[in-house]
Amino acid sequence: MANLLDVFQYGFMQRALIAGLLVAGISGVLGVFVVLRRTAPLGDALAHVSFGGLALGLAVGILPIYVAIAVAVFGGVAIRWLQERRLYGELSLTIVQAAGLGGGAVVVSLVGGLNVDILSFLFGLSVLTVTWSDVVLIAGLFAVTGVAMSLLYKEFFLLTFDPEGARVSGLPVRALDTGFTIVTAVAVVLAMRVVGILLISSLLVVPAATALQLRLGLRGTLGASILMAMLAVVVGLVLSVLFDTATGGMITLVSIASLLAALAAAGISRRAESALRARGREPESSARSVDTTRLE
Amino acid sequence: MSATARPQVPVVSYDGPVVAVRNVDLDRDGQEVLRDINFVVEKGQILGVVGPNGGGKTSLLRLVLGLERPTRGEIELFGQPVARFRGWNRIGYIPQHAVGFDQNFPASVREIVLLGRVARRGLLRWLGTEDRNAARRAIELCGLIGLEGRRVGALSGGEKQRVFIAKAIAAEPDLLVMDEPTAGVDPESERRFYDLLGRLKDELGLTVIFVSHDLGVVSARVDRVACLNRTLVYEGPPRALRDEELLRRLYGAGMVTIAHDQDQPHTHGH
Fold it and tell me: Residue B101 and residue A36: Cβ atoms within 8 Å?
């Protein structure tokens, strides 16, 4: 075990670890809300949109990640705008996603095709390439999204649990929805720096889904989701260096492995529970088994 | 609405009706939903709205809550037209399928009841001691002591219903609006619900409007009844409700008169 952690003696591993843990923290929290609001595809859509921004940034020579954030936020606002018009419902995700990807593909081909940079954005960073300026940028945006989330935590909670009640109680529901989309857009671009555009759900959705299996309160679930995302980052980093494989892919596999483990554990505990109940009181079991269907 | 703190509505002493509905019609997609609705609810009264399914009960609540605008007529809340009303934190609302929310939602009873304080506290402010105290009082009043740390999804239907009432009460509203609060709840929980309703009225001076399709129980427990079938068939004290002619106008001929029996509280006329 001590030997395994020796890899963190290297500067590049320390930088990758810090960046990864910060991203895990913010996407762990947001992921719970994204999953509970039934908007899991939003993360994927925003990630694909940000590809257009990356391509644009690379083409015009501005730091791609800034352009990606701007484009992702713009894409998020566009999705909200389409949804409010009720023109396309959840199609709005697909439309904006296609616009971002298509635009990105055109820009990339104009400036000379795919290169290593683009591939790292699609499948996540190579641990060797994280610079201190990456870490500083991620830390800065982590602070901004963290403050926004802690200030709007109670509103996002109410909006997620009881949207109609939130509206009746006079909360500015539309502004909050847009705010949530913007925060998610920023978090998605950050997570993209670690696991890549195509693997965004491994940090945004999967750790939250794992945490939900533990049947805790909201605070407990948020904490568990952060821990799950961090665990995936640390173990994924170490394994990817050990076996010399893609870091984003490894983080994703670890994340999904822990979800499967949690699902199995939840299944076992439910079976044990209902067995106990069946022994105690016969008729009760059918009433309780209603809430055992989730995430299938 | 501004992104800063909510405008705090000064509570001026106001003795008029809490809700006043005058000459209200509602058409939706060219269909007549409600016609010529008139009634007032005074402070401290409990109004039960009854009537057949599709009779417009939920639509009427949506109008009162400002979720929909009437086609004609006026609605006033605390003396102000609904369109200009800003004191929404004075109104607690429990929607029809509140109890049927996602059973796996990861939240404890205490967390949910605290949500009742969110709008009252305002944007960009954290909930504090005052909010936790209000939540604890609501939990006590609704008989949920001992269940604070439990996941709401794991509670029984009646307990969940009381959690939602506690959430509404935690906001310290003046008016509580509930849509079918006793639907899908067992008889014992239904009895506890009506007892709780009485306590809310007596101890908090709350004005309550609720919808039910269970005429018999409602008439025994409220100050006023509104019988709604597209239009108001009857509005007033519940004693007139044994009138067969009235029931026929409300539910149509063939309606079986409900002899209300505490063991069988769900005899519905359709």
Answer: no
